[in-house]
Each structure stands twice: as structure tokens, then as C-alpha cells.
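Milestone M4 deliverable, item 7.
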Amino acid sequence: MTTTTGASLAACLIAIAVMAVYLRKWWTGGRAVKDLVTMAQGFINGALATICLGGLGGWLAGCARQTAGGVGGKVVSSTTGTSAGTPMATASLGRLTPEGGCVVFLLFVILIVSYKAASKEDKGRLMGFVFAGAVLCVTAGVVGVLNGLPDLVNSLGTSGRNALEGNV
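Output delivered:
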């Protein structure tokens, strides 16, 4: 598996397993909305990292997929004796405009600040879902569900630029 082919089945299974662990803790632990917001924040940042082509976010998303594919392939084959390294159908969320890139940068800054201020459990939730978003958001099915996300980010950036330029 390479970053150009996307995620393997094993990588997706590792990402889903990470999400399942934290969602189970959330479900059995009182279902606090703030914990769900933390998970959503992480997943969205991971998803947006997949469209940061040529940037640090895109590189880290590719590393997450490669790591998950390698670990997942070994774990699945060791456990079941079958190979799960086959690539999944891929897609891309789209492209960022310069204004959208600025919004993504601000979201990454907020992610870093949130991580620094978070408890140990919240840090795990946050980074687990960043990882899951980076892995799953190159598969055709997840991209189909989130296909409006880049347009939303790009339009927010354009609105911010217009406001700064006095073109409201």
C-alpha cells in the first residue's frame, strides 16, 4: 500500500477498531456530549489532512495510512491466517482553495491548542479520531458521505476573506 493507492482493508479495520474502542467508552461512560465533540473535532481534522496535498497534514495522513496498513496487515494475518492488505476503492474529498487552506490551518491550530489543554483521556480520543479520519477519508464510501466538507471549508475561507477586505 502506498499513499497514492489509499488505504488497505487492514488499515481501515485498525481505524475502525480505534474508533470502536473510544465510542464504546463514550457509550458506557455516561455519553457526555463534550467527549463526542472531541471525537468529531479529531475526525474532521484527520479528514481535512487528507486534502492537504504537499503539506505537513497530507504527509502525516499518508504516514497514518501506511502505519495502519502495515500494523493491520500483520495483526489480521497473525490472528486469522488471511491477508487483509488489499487496497480499498479510493476517492478524494477534493481540493482546497487558498482561503480554504487558511481555514484548515486555523482548525489545526485549534486542534493543537485543544490537545495541549486536554486530559490524558481526551488526548487519546482526539488523536485516535485524527488517525481514523486520516485513514478512512480516502475510501470511496467515507468520501461520498463527507463530499461537502471541502466546499464548506472553502466557502468559510472565502467569506472570511471577504469580511477582511470589507466586501461583506
